Every structure is written in structure tokens, then in C-alpha cells.
Amino acid sequence: MRRTLFTEEHEALRATAKEFLARHVIPHQDEFIENRGLPREFWLEAGKQGLLGLHIPDEWGGGGSEDYRYGVVVAEEFSKVSASISSCFGIHGSVCAPYLVELTTDEQKERWLPRFCTGELVCAIAMTEPSGGSDLAALKTHAVRDGDDWILNGSKTFITNGYSADLVIVAARTDPSKGARGITLFGVETGMEGFTRGRKLDKVGQTESDTAELFFQDVRVPDALRIGEEGQGFISMMERLVQERVGAALANIAHAAQILDETIEYVKQRKAFGQSVGSFQHNKFKVAELKTKVDVTQAFVDKCIVLFAEGQLTSAEAAEAKWWSAQVQNDVLDECVQLYGGYGYMNEYRVARAWRDARVTKIWAGSNEIMKELIGRDLGL
Q1: Sequence-ordered alpha helix ranges (H) in the chain
Q2: Catalytic machinery residues
Q3: 171, 136 in Cβ contact below 8 A?
Q4: Fewer Cβ within 10 Å of end Cβ, the chain: N or C?
């Protein structure tokens, strides 16, 4: 189905992203998988191509675009190549960027944003804790004021870019008596005494991303590195989760659509019993169902993209897009593995890696069950 939300300028940027991926990512994917992370060269090259700071004001070294769709086309192309690499890239350029642009002081912008745009500074955000999961209001990492500093203690887990990040946006409790309104955000930098990282976590999928545990033991964080107002951290996170969830949705469906296209070509070519596998009526009907699911989901996600770009997408709508796209993605890829037969279970086939990579999308950015809870509450239930 023809999409109508992009202009020639958007497609020109898409071409740039494709060229970057063809030169600097696709030839090196096996290396990224082996190392369970992306090398600094990846980030520096992305910075040279202007892909990291699309929505960062030009005065701080970014592209200065206020058009959300430019980030969308780049995210889609990354997702087509690898859901894992897309997640690393998205955490830095899409999830963390709004915090650093909208909540920071000029001094903080000068400290972080120019290097954020060049790839010299890689960013992560640390919300999730070992015992908390999706319940951000219950986090236990805490910071106590000590003069002009804060003393930070606690731990985080499942942090994408956590092993390699130079800057981590950390959510910590600063006033236990105020519940969700007692949470504050801090910028924790590599090299701060007491800030350590655990192992790269051994995940089922998303192999190219360095997902890590983070530990904070009496880390002295200057108040000058507090991000946003004291006690406003939870609200700041909730306000920006809409963007994170629509970003997850567009990545989910781009990933599924690409693998489905490759699967369709595969079943056209593979022969069994003297004819192409795709010509069997069951398989033909199955592919027709998958294609329809992807197209319908794409149309809904595109509408969400437009609404978000106009500042009109609600939290409940973003939750709908996130959970539905993740479910469709997983359903489609599971069927694609089946259509490949035994080869679909081999790691050297993209469909197998895509299937493993996709499973987490029903869990992260708020589990699908939490998304349904949010939607139900919005309906007054």
C-alpha cells in the first residue's frame, strides 16, 4: 500500500541512511554480533552523516529539524537491517535526545549535545531496576543531597547501550515521602567514582546491542548535572514515553514488513513437490493474511506518526500502537520462520535472528500487558 506521509526530502534522507547501513553496518554485522555491541566507529560514522542529531538544535551541532518524520525514515531503515542495532541507535538518537534538549540548562547542552551529535558521546537512559520492571514509580535507586552534590546509590538493569554509554540519564528517588513526585533525573558520566557496569547481559536475541547492569555506590553527582527540576523525573519520563512508544511501533512494523518481503521472495523461489512453496494454497493464504496484517498495522502506525508530529497523539493511542505492532511483529515473524521450514531455525538466516530479536518488543517500553492496562484506564475501566 502506498504511503503518503513522506516528501522527497524525507526520502532523500532515507537514501542517506541506506547508504550508511550498506557501507558501515551490513558488512560488519557478524563482528557486532560476536562483540555483543557496536564499536565507537559506528557512532562516529553515523555522526559524520548527520544521523545522530537530526532534532538537536543547530546551535548545539544538530540538524535542527522540528519535523519528526525525518527521524522516522532513519529509524525504519535501521529496523529493516537489524532490530537490535535499531534499538541501540534509537535509544541514543530518539529516546535520550528529548531529555537533553528539553530539560537541560545551556551549560549542560554545551557539555553534552555537540558530542552527542558527533558520536563522541553515546547516551543511555536507566529507568528499569532488578525488582521493578515496568513499575517506574517504585524504583529504589536513591540520591541524597550533600551540599552542591547528590550521593547516588542503587542499581539498574536491562540498560541498552549501558556497557558503552558515556552519559547515562539515571532516574533516582530523592524524596521517599512523595512517591512518584519524589523522583529526579541525573546525568551520570563515565569515570565518576563509584559508577560501575556489570557484564553484558546474555540475551535470547538483540545480540548486537550491549545491554548491561549498572551499579552506583556513593556516586557523587554535582547538582549541576541534575536533569530537569527536582522531583519532576517521573513526570518527565511519562511525558516522553509517548515518543518512545510510537518510536517502538514504527520500528516494530518496519522490521516485520522487511522480513515478510524477504520471506515472500523465498517461498516464490523454493521448490517442493515440483512447485514453489508459495504456490501451495495454505501458504498462499497465510502470506495473504500476513501481508494484510502488516499493511493495516502500517496504516495505523502512520496515523500515529502524523498525530505525534502534530502534538496530538495521546498516551493511550501510543500504548495501542506499541502493543499491537509488537504483537503483529511477533505473529508475522513466527509464521515467516515456519514458511522457511528447517532453514528458518538456522542462525545464519536473517529470519531466525529477526524472530529472536522481536520477542522482547512485547516486554520493553512497558510490557504489552501494561499497555492494555493504560488503554483500559483511558476507557474509564
Answers
A1: 8-24, 29-35, 40-48, 68-81, 83-90, 97-102, 106-118, 233-269, 281-309, 315-340, 350-358, 368-378
A2: 244
A3: yes
A4: C
Residue type, 186: F
Q: What is the pLDDT of residue 137?
A: 74
CA distances from 109 to 54, 88, 89 (A): 15, 22, 20
The three grid cell numbers given for residue 230, joined into one nine-digit string: 527536582
Q: Report the percent of the chain where pLDDT is more than 90.
A: 96
**Whole-prediction pTM value?**
0.95
For residue 244, CA distances in Å to 152, 248, 306 come to 26, 6, 15
Comparing CA positions, the residue from 195, 198, 243, 238 lying closest to residue 219 is: 195
pLDDT tens digits for 54-88? 999 999 999 999 999 999 999 999 999 999 999 99
**Residue pair 251/329 in contact by the 8 Å Cβ criterion:** no
The CA-based dihedral angle spanning residues 252, 68, 240, 38, taken in that order and rounded to the nearest 10 degrees? 60
- Bridge-based pairing state of the strands 211-222 and 226-227: unpaired
Q: What is the pLDDT of residues 18-33, one digit of tens each?
A: 999 999 999 999 999 9
Residues pairing with 272 in the sheet: 275
* pLDDT bucket at 325, cuts 50 / 70 / 90: very high
The answer to whether 138 and 236 are in contact (CB under 8 A) is no
Give the number of residues written for the chain. 381
User: What are the Cα distances from residue 295, in Å, to 85, 143, 298, 331?
Assistant: 24, 47, 5, 14
Phi and psi dihedrals of 168, rounded to 5?
-120, 125
Residues contacting 233, CB < 8 A, separation 6+: 171, 172, 183, 184, 185
Which three cell numbers mark 46? 553515523
